[in-house]
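Dissemination and training. As part of the outreach component of the grant, students in the summer workshop were shown how a complex can be specified as a set of sequence lines and then modelled as a single object. The example used during the hands-on session is reproduced here so that future cohorts can follow it. Participants entered these lines:
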Amino acid sequence: MVLEHGIPVPVGSEEDLKHICLGHKRSGGGEGLGRRRIPITSDIVSSAPLAFIYHNFLSKKECEYLIKLATPHMAKSLVSDNETGKGIESKARTSYGMFLKRGQDKVIRGIEKRIADYTLIPVENGESLYVLHYEKGQKYDPHYDYSDGGSTTRNGGPRMATFLMYLSDVEEGGETVFPSAKGNIEKKGISIKPKMGDALLFWSMNHDGTLDPLSLHGSSPVIKGDKWSCTKWMHVDEHKIGKTKGV
Ligand SMILES: O=C(O)CCC(=O)C(=O)O
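and obtained this result:
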């Protein structure tokens, strides 16, 4: 694997890529909140868009901590208006959420440092963590993270990658879906079942800097139970906190 613009780029065939990434173990799971007995391992879930899953990225204690911190402040999730870039309510996104300010406390700083270590994207390029809660029937229709109407794009350039952490299991439904992805097999579209502590990294940009339309993704409706997740959107350049409302 080589790095171009900070993006891990596959070398050779998809088989080579799988060989490099499957079951790959890294150090760095030792710090943070809660004892980590299981090492962080990674799998490739798609080569188009480029997407990886990191198993056991967060400890159970970290997941519980983020949920506890966010719970009193949850509000209806918004989408960006294409014209103005302002946050507006939409039937396409029915979850609740809130931002935990970048660097807010020691636990959050530890998680943000771990994300930077694994993605090779500096902490400064990331927005504040966004904690999401979906109850039965709630969803987020397929969308692009880079097409946000301009307001976040003006602060750090386009979002180039998204790091989505699952803070809970979901009994049924609530999968993260990529309807246009090629995945590992011939079948079009992939779906990832949330598992507490796992994290999904996907790239919205190709390694030549063009935006990747295959990064279209969403959250299918929760059928049974509820879903907690936490997103870190990462930009091409530094993203200044406080410059864009909420993030
Ligand atoms: O919660 C999910 O599975 C998807 C979240 C999402 O699409 C996003 O944060 O951009």
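The first strand starts at residue 2 and ends at 4. Students were then asked to discuss how this feature might be tested experimentally.
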